[in-house]
Amino acid sequence: MTAGDSEDTLVPRRSVRTRSAILEAARRRFAAQGFERTTIRAVAADAGIDPSLVMRYYGNKAKLFDAALDIDLDLPDLSTVPPGALAETFVRHFLHRWEGGPADDALLLLLRSAVTNDRAAQRMRDIFATQVAPALGAVSADADQVALISTQLLGLALTRHLLRLPAVVGMTPQEIVTAYAPAIHNIIAREAAA
Q: How far is the C-alpha of 92 from the C-alpha of 75, rounded, in Å?
């Protein structure tokens, strides 16, 4: 214990570290093995803890899966972005979120799982409905536009991270922004012209 630490402050810190270790292990397992084949015991072993702690913090495998898929896209406020830069800003942000770091493993888990798991597919729909649609609502309330932009972004993530198409994987983020932003811009401009 360091000066100023009490037993009461150490317990919450341990709890946070344990929860974090469980979620990291769960994301890796779910990504590698899917929901059905992942076990609480395997997650606990990967986290270096007793399986009872996984149950204590998350209750069951379904709740652990939900926690592993809890994602905040941290979208920018598009109402402050000049109209000509909207598409580039949006594409750049999504690339950063998909490829930004270990926390973004949850996005890849969600993408991989959504293809075969109804719970993950619903979570993906929820994220796009509660985060992407409102962010785009700053520039348009058109549901068709949001849906089309969503297909573009999900298609990019699918081909770059799951299918790993060599031509897409080989592109730098800037090359993707340069090539992809005009397609998103055309969708946005279509609504503005209507």
A: 11
- Cα-Cα-Cα-Cα torsion 101, 106, 107, 111, nearest 10 degrees, comes to 140
**Considering only CA atoms, which of 156, 142, 151 is closest in space to residue 188?**
142
Q: Which residues contact 84 (CB under 8 A, 6 or more apart)?
A: 185
Looking up tokens 């994220």 gives: 127
- The model's pLDDT over 96-134, given as tens digits with 9 standing for 90+, comes to 888 876 556 788 888 888 888 898 899 889 998 899 888
Q: How many CB atoms lie within 10 A of CB 179?
A: 13
Asked if 31 and 108 touch (Cβ cutoff 8 Å), the reply is yes
Q: Domain extents for the chain?
A: 7-68, 78-193
Reported as half-sphere exposure (CB side, CA atoms, 13 A), residue 32 has a value of 11
Domain over 7-68 is classified CATH 1.10.10.60: yes
pTM over 0.90: no
How far is Cα 155 from Cα 153, in angstroms, rounded to an integer?
Answer: 5
